[in-house]
Amino acid sequence: MDWIPKTRLGQMVLNGEITTMSDALATRLPLREAEIVDILLPDLKDEVIDLNMVQRMTDSGRRVRFAVTCIVGNGDGFIGIGRAKGKEVGPSIKKAIDNAKLNIIEIKRGCGSWECGCGEPHSFPYEVIGRTGSVTVYLKPAPQGIGLAVGDVAKSLLTIAGVKDAWGFARGNTKTKVNYAMATFEALKETARMRVTDEQAEKLHIVSGPVGLSIEETDATNYEQEE
Fold it and tell me: DSSP class of residue 54?
């Protein structure tokens, strides 16, 4: 890979001082190069959440631009979301994916449902709330086997993040896919922000980041539950 890092974090990754995405985020150094994510998370998947054509009248005529929202994730504790605009669809999608890589976060998962107690980090450890614009998203722990009882946009984000079971609902103008996706992402951020004690982590089986589950296994599990 012919990549010359321009940041301190990039140099540490290239030199082998940092070998995991968890360690990279733990440094608190700014993530400004998408190549860092490509190296540390080679199994990263991406998905286009929203694609809009925006038309604008100018003195020289009608100008057409595309607004793209994409998500990336490995299906095992990491997810990012990014937006981009451009004159062509292809480059706009690529730019949105790169922006999503720069916004990648590590989420916490656990078994926070009182109905379950299976001891596996398949759901949320506690309820989280995210807000963007008029949309508010509530995500709650669910027992194993429930699947993702959430809207389609939220389901895409939770699947690519590696959450297998969850209750959820949203308030506001959820037809605005971008706000719905961003609100869901903010809720996922709350799992990382909330501090827990060792006793709580053991009781709710809380795990931060990867637990060794691939995105293909997550998709297969969701498919079996739908069947």
Answer: E
